[in-house]
Amino acid sequence: MTSRTTNGEGSLSKRSILNLPLAPKGTRFTERLLPDPLTPTPSALVAVEESAPSLLRRSRQVGEGAHFSYTTPLALEFPYSLEGNGEEVKNEDAEEDPEQETKRVEAMSPEERETFAMERAKKQMEKVERLMRPYEVTPEMVADSASEKDLDRLQGYLPKGRKSQSYPSARILGYSKECLQDCVPDLDVGDLDVWLKEHAKKDGPDVYTSGPMAKTPAKDDKAALARYELSDFLSGRLLGLQLPDVKDADIEQGAERGVAEAQHKRVVRNREGASESSEERWKRASDTLAKRQKGEPKEYSGYAPWSNAYSGHQFGQWAGQLGDGRAITLMETYNSKTNQRYEIQLKGAGRTPYSRFADGLAVLFSSVREFLASEAMHGLGIPTSRALCLTSLRDISVRREQRNPAAIVARIAPIWVRVGSFEHHATRGEWESVRLLGEFTCEVGYGWKDVTGTAAKPWAERLIKECVIRNAKTIALWQVYGFMHGVMNTDNISVLGLTIDYGPYGFMDIFDRHTICNKSDSEGRYAYHMQPTAAMFVMEQLTSSLAAIVGFERKHGRPPRAGELVALSSSEINELGKETNEQIWTEMKSLFMDTVIEHWQDGWRKRLALQEKRDDDRYTLIEPLTDVMDGYLDMTHTMRKLSRLPDFVQTLDENDSEGIDKFVESLANWENDLPSYVRDDRKKAAVKWVKTYVQRLREERVSEKNTVEQAAQQIKKDLQAANPSFILRNWVADEVIERLQNGDDTEFLEKVLGMCLHPFQPWGEEKAEGQAEDERLCSLGTLLTTNMPSCSS
């Protein structure tokens, strides 16, 4: 299943995206966890007459312990204005003159009016379903593809409605070669590199990389076909699924396709109060889960995209169900070189059951920012989700603060489980769902082998500890490099300690501990200096969500087995949680704080090229340096300029007053950058700090085996390797967006992406020909406080 193309790099063993191997069955999210009861199997996505395809993206509360909902991307403007057979969803069929109808309704009794309204709503909903079915896979498409099935890969489906000229075409604006090599090195992007170069700064129908408006490649042009398929798949138009072969007769009679009649009846029964008990619901769910894992009977097999369910605290307040309102995971694959598992997810590909009132789309403005920031954080060495591809849907206009063109980011992470994922089920008392999610996180996310089975060891407390340590390390690096997330809600914090969900983030310009990058954060909850405190609140919520399972494990000396938690009463669960929650959190709080401080100091030591750990580093070197910068000096420039210190103080002697004074003068334009009332004191503090710093460097680096000259040379290299010359400043991202919107300048996007991925290179510092642009992009420019996007852009 390989396509033998050069891919611009001479490789002859690349696979098109649908040919990428799926992750092993035992590691698949949808085979380990519980589905939305209204889309219980991948086959539920197939559109037949009795199905309701609108449920794939109709905003609703998803219950019964479900971890996810099967859904398909549908990148269209919302509210939908779908056309089919000459009718439009917005306009109800007119059976009579509107005035006559109004008079008729006014003459009805209240009971008749209610019946009329219900019948009218039903008729309108039936029309919605009828018009949406052409946008989904049909039984005929499944039957036609039966001979092409391969259980190790996805089958591509392109529904009729998505072939229409009115469906939006896609244009890939850029992709990260480093993400490609790090995560999916087998992926064939075809002629994408050549395409991007040839179509940079061009407009018109010829610039589309896929879709109805794009030119379909010739069947023998493998490179163009790989690029077209990649674009179609990552724009959400081409659907990648595995669907079982079921005869048409079975489709008409059974419950496996569409939303089954039995499911509808059960939902109605539950709403009327005749709901199942927790034990009955769990028994049914576990039976279904076992069938999914075995793939028997046939209708329980298959593979399909999905969106995750989660809840969360937003700005400290409980917000209830949130979920992937505009994120859809397309597939799980793995790096053939490292065997690391990855989930490929689209952000901005349309509505899901968790979209609430939103449209499920993302604007170009925020998509460019997430694409660049993900790779910039990776370049700095900070744990993060990755961004593979940025795709424009230029024909879709999205309403935010103003009209914006739509765009999609294809992003990658080993798993997309959040702290809010655990909160979601714990607050609902869905303890078997908490258990399943915990086992999945430990085994697939952390790679632990002793979580389930006969030799299983308690895992809940270990999970909390692992999550605490990972996030503490990440937050420490945020502080060290001046990154501000802006929206540290519990649903935006990864259990893997990755930086995820880039919205109104910002990188520090002028160092200021109180900087707030999110204009919606009026109280400064997520200000720079508050980020460790905010993260600690998130870890407290995770601890609370798992406390009952920790209590069970401590009581029994083993983890809970399937069905044991649902058999416990609410009072028993509460008692287990109360006994352990306070004790665990006291331990985890100390662990979090100690880990943050330890790695914060280690990060600053690295930036200062220090080789030894000393207890007083925080008070003698780190905080005095930030005090010098605070309020007036640019963080990145100041730290990068430290690499010039050996040029001024060549002897590494703290008594070289002349060299130290000259170096301090070079750190800033003191006359213009600082007001007179603080200038002298700040310069004195800088001189004092440099003397202490030089003395420390000499103590560590100079010896009988290492001369001053050798030490100075190595110090300079170490400082350059730890202090970026480039960071993704807000104004740089704004310029990339503006040049894409106004001139389709994909070359500039690629240039900035390269600088993001290699921030420690001497961009613009060598004053060589052609480096003026690099120097400009490393300049301070317009400060952070302007033109920040909202959380939902």
UniProtKB/TrEMBL annotation:
Keywords noted in UniProt: ATP-binding, Magnesium, Metal-binding, Nucleotide-binding, Nucleotidyltransferase, Transferase
One Pfam assignment: SelO
The protein, known as: Selenoprotein O
Family: Belongs to the SELO family.
Stretches for region Disordered: 1-24, 85-111, 265-299
GO molecular function: AMPylase activity; ATP binding; metal ion binding
UniProt signal peptide: none
Basic and acidic residues bias locations: 100-111
One GO cellular component term noted in the UniProt record for this chain: mitochondrion
InterPro entries for this protein: SelO
Biased composition (Polar residues): 1-16
Domain of life, per lineage: Eukaryota
Cofactor: Mg(2+)
